[in-house]
Amino acid sequence: MITQIDNPVIEIHDLSVSYEKKPVLWDVDMSLPEGKLIGIIGPNGAGKSTLLKSIMGLIPLSSGYINIEGKPLKEVRSKISYVPQRESVDWDFPTSVFEVVMMGRYGQLGLLKRPRKSDREIVMDSLHKVGMEAFKDRQISELSGGQQQRVFLARALAQQADIYFMDEPFAGVDAATEKAIVELLRSMSAQNKTVIVVHHDLQSVARYFDWIILLNMRLVASGPIEETFTPELLQETYGGKLTLLTEISDLIQKNRFPNRE
Amino acid sequence: MVGDAISHAVLPGIVIAFLWSGSRDSVTMLLGAGALGIISTFLIEFLTNKGNLQSDASIGVTFTWLFALGVILISAFTGQVDLDQECVLYGEIAYVPLDTIVLNSGVDIGPQAIYLLGAVLLMVIAFVWLGFNQLRITSFDPQYAISLGISATLWNYLLMAFVSFTTVASFESVGAILVVAFLIAPAATAYLLTKRLKTMIFIASITGILSAIGGHFLAISINGSIAGAMATVAGIIFGIAFVYVRSKTKGDAKITSRESIVA
């Protein structure tokens, strides 16, 4: 069940990706609406991170193409922002919170140029939004997991992009941070920013997202949450894993038409 | 380890430079060695990134292969000439003051190594100064750098090229032990002492200078090898820093464990 839309902010056409001749994504074809909070859901090894990386141009495509705002990636780089998985970097690297968030400005700075006052203000504003102002001079090796994730988010915010891709921003963070991040994402989508999040926890899917992409190497579904978060489609995504299935049907019952303001 | 690998991998460069120019002039040899040094670092990076080899495996494959190629070239083409990497690689720091540049007017303007390595120093400072942000972001988070449109591959190769070039230029003047020791020991000392990148670079430079001066006087007082004495002093400074940091963190750990018992 794939809902295609007119004037999509992101259009993916016939995308296939493989690692060393082993296919990871098969023939993904979809279009995504602007200003929504979008979740990418699927089991381990389903290619969720791969989908983000291929949209960001980090890995070569076997076939297909991706348009963002109707243009290829190179022309719209400054409008998109990427939050990699927290484990993808070495947190013992000698640098401070402020310096990491400043990296979000490097795309605009270019070679040789030093940050201006306006760049510093944007960095401080981004740190304020994630509640990490007090930590600006900390070394990143002294942060907790939740704080590391907030720093990564602040860095993405400092890019002042229109579209945000986040790889498991809720993995290994405490409940308070998760709540703070969700509120931040909501306020971003209220400002018509498009936020696309790789997500693991089925429990919270219905509460967090407007639109979901169900992925298991091939695209199972893409559409508004009300139409897409159904037992049949989840079963198709996760395969016939029995324990999961009962859990899922419980979940659906619990989460059907959740309270949303 | 890359420094060690480069010291062997440059042999074919030396031979090719000799065959091409027909002279054993050290600048020609240095250019050949420098080119091969850069090629070998590229090859190591390429095998690690694209071939999915472990980095020590790709270093091992690259330098043994290039060294062997150099040996074959020597035995096949330069049989009668005394040529091996000692011509370029095993410089001796004690001879540096003897190899001076004398202008046509007859004025001695000082050791050749000072000009050569001084130029390398200025180039390296300029590179790090201009590319500081790019080097930092591509080392910390290459994927994010790529997503910003900053080529992590390009900066990694540039960095490696500078490491390789510095290594080869230093080999010629001060010899292999000193290069390998000074590539690693001052940086490792600084890494123990601080978590700030700029402070780390500063401490590493100061440690290097102190090791050189300290080693110089140690060598004079014991009338021994200068390179050996300098490397020893660098090792001793690292040891002191290591013991200092260990004792400090141990003290901290004791305090926190006592606190948690009390709590």
TrEMBL record, chain A:
Tell me which residues make up the ABC transporter domain: 10-242
Gene Ontology MF terms in the entry: ATP binding; ATP hydrolysis activity
Entries under Gene3D superfamilies matching the protein = P-loop containing nucleotide triphosphate hydrolases
Alphabetically ordered keywords of this record: ATP-binding, Nucleotide-binding, Transport
Which family does this protein fall into?
A: Belongs to the ABC transporter superfamily.
Q: Which PANTHER family match?
A: IRON TRANSPORT SYSTEM ATP-BINDING PROTEIN HI_0361-RELATED (PTHR42734:SF5), METAL TRANSPORT SYSTEM ATP-BINDING PROTEIN TM_0124-RELATED (PTHR42734)
* UniProt protein name: Metal ABC transporter ATP-binding protein
Q: Which organism is it from?
A: Marivirga atlantica
